[in-house]
């Protein structure tokens, strides 16, 4: 039977009142929402790492290393074009046929695309077809991730007690640091145990092909789930949207706009702290840190990302989503001014402190998003709304972030990259000031509105 929390809410357990839909145990919800996004982000990040370390050498014409890196980072951005398409596609089915089946489909789409990347011949072997196939598989990765995050966030929050929604919403968010840690840990292990020639010849393919094992684990977990209680109620009431994507734009436009802008700083900041910082930190124009050393430094920083993510959820449950995110966003805005002096200091210790502080702030801003974005939308269009706003922010905030930062650093210097971070934070700060608090809303609430 259900158990009571200290606030009087019922925890999700394996059974409920007679006639009620079967509920998921809390532990299963945690594992399923965390495991799936960990796998998805692992797949996504091994591409990001390879886009800096491997693909410029193997999939693009040789001659100008800087141009090859920019071309590789451009393929990195393709996934962010695909993600809004994936959010509309999987959001439609998530709101029509259910969260469970859609989460399985998104995982398979992402996983198959990732494994195929590990099998593509290089430019030297098949010429221009190599980068074209790489771009196609990258599009598949983005398509799958476009439907993955929204479903995982709904799985967590729609099974959560109301006063713990932000904490539950951090479970899928933790997939980001865990996936990053796994991806870069695999690359680091390979790089330390084989020569550069062997790594470029075949070693880089191993992380992509290994994802097949993780996919099977994720599928096993998700196939054992019951449908979320909120969606089961929509089905029982006969209130499913016929065209969820059309309806969410018609009835919840404010939620989409505010959700997108609130996520902008998070996306820009994260990909500059990881992809750009590694490219700059290990490149000829930067401090010249060894590739394996910088990967270790990033892994240390990501530990703090993981630690501060649930902390942000607890704070957001206690004090509200807006105050928590406003404080974190102001800190990111100010941190933009520290980017140039810290990243160009030439000191490994200072760069490590830079990564720790930055990725700690990333945890504080990313953690509450798993609850906030679903809370902006009513149940019958929630999958579509949360996914679309999340992935539109990715398109606007992250798709060009590594590319734009590389160009800004080359043309103007690192101070311009710091200004880019601060400008993105300012956009998010304005959106947070306009938005209203959603902590006390029921998940069946009407679409979010700006504060009066």
TrEMBL record:
Transmembrane segments: 72-91, 103-126, 132-155, 167-190, 202-223, 252-274, 294-316, 323-343, 349-373, 385-406, 412-435
Keywords recorded for this protein, A-Z: Cell inner membrane, Cell membrane, Membrane, Symport, Transmembrane, Transmembrane helix, Transport
Compartments in which it is found: Cell inner membrane
Domain of life: Bacteria
GO-annotated cellular components: plasma membrane
Record-linked Pfam families: Sugar_tr
Membrane topology listed for this record: Multi-pass membrane protein
InterPro entries: MFS_dom, MFS_sugar_transport-like, MFS_trans_sf, MHS_symport, Sugar_transporter_CS
Secretion signal, residue range per the UniProt entry: none
Domain Major facilitator superfamily (MFS) profile residues, every copy: 29-439
GO MF term set: symporter activity
Region (Disordered): 1-24
Function of the protein: May be a proton symporter involved in the uptake of osmolytes such as proline and glycine betaine.
UniProt family annotation: Belongs to the major facilitator superfamily. Metabolite:H+ Symporter (MHS) family (TC 2.A.1.6) family.
Protein name (record): Putative proline/betaine transporter
């Amino acid at each position: 039977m259900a158990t009571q929390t200290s606030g009087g809410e019922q925890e999700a357990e394996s059974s409920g009142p007679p006639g009620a839909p079967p509920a998921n145990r809390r532990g299963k919800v945690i594992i399923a929402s965390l495991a799936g996004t960990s796998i998805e982000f692992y797949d996504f990040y091994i591409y990001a790492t390879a886009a800096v370390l491997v693909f410029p050498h193997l999939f693009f014409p040789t001659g100008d290393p800087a141009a090859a890196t920019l071309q590789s980072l451009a393929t990195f951005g393709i996934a962010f074009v695909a993600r809004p398409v994936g959010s509309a596609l999987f959001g439609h089915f998530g709101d029509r046929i259910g969260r469970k089946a859609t989460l399985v489909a998104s995982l398979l789409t992402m996983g198959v695309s990732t494994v195929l990347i590990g099998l593509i011949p290089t430019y030297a072997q098949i010429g221009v077809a190599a980068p074209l196939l790489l771009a196609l598989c990258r599009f598949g990765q983005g398509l799958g991730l476009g439907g993955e995050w929204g479903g995982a966030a709904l799985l967590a929050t729609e099974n959560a007690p109301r006063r713990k929604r932000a904490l539950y919403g951090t479970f899928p968010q933790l997939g980001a640091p865990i996936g990053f840690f796994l991806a870069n840990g695999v690359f680091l292990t390979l790089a330390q145990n084989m020569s550069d020639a062997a790594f470029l010849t075949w070693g880089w393919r191993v992380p992509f092909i290994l994802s097949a094992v993780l996919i099977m684990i994720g599928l096993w977990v998700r196939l054992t789930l019951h449908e979320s209680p909120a969606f089961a109620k929509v089905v029982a009431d006969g209130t499913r949207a016929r065209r969820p994507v059309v309806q969410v734009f018609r009835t919840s436009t404010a939620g989409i706009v505010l959700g997108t802008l609130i996520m902008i700083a998070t996306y820009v900041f994260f990909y500059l702290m990881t992809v750009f910082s590694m490219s700059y930190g290990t490149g000829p124009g930067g401090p010249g840190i060894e590739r394996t050393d910088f990967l270790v430094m990033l892994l240390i920083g990501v530990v703090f990302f993981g630690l501060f993510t649930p902390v942000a959820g607890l704070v957001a449950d206690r004090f509200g989503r807006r105050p928590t995110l406003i404080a974190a966003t102001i800190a990111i805005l100010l941190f933009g001014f520290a980017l140039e002096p810290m990243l160009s200091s030439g000191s490994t210790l200072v760069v490590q402190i830079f990564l720790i502080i930055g990725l700690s702030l990333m945890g504080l801003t990313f953690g509450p998003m798993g609850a906030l974005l679903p809370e902006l939308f009513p149940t019958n269009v929630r999958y579509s709304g949360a996914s679309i706003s999340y992935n539109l922010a990715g398109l606007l905030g992250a798709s060009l972030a590594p590319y734009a930062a590389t160009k800004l650093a080359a043309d103007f210097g690192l101070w311009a990259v710091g200004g880019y971070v601060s400008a993105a934070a300012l956009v998010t700060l304005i959106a947070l000031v306009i938005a209203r608090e959603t902590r006390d809303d029921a998940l069946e609430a009407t679409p979010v509105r700006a504060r009066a």
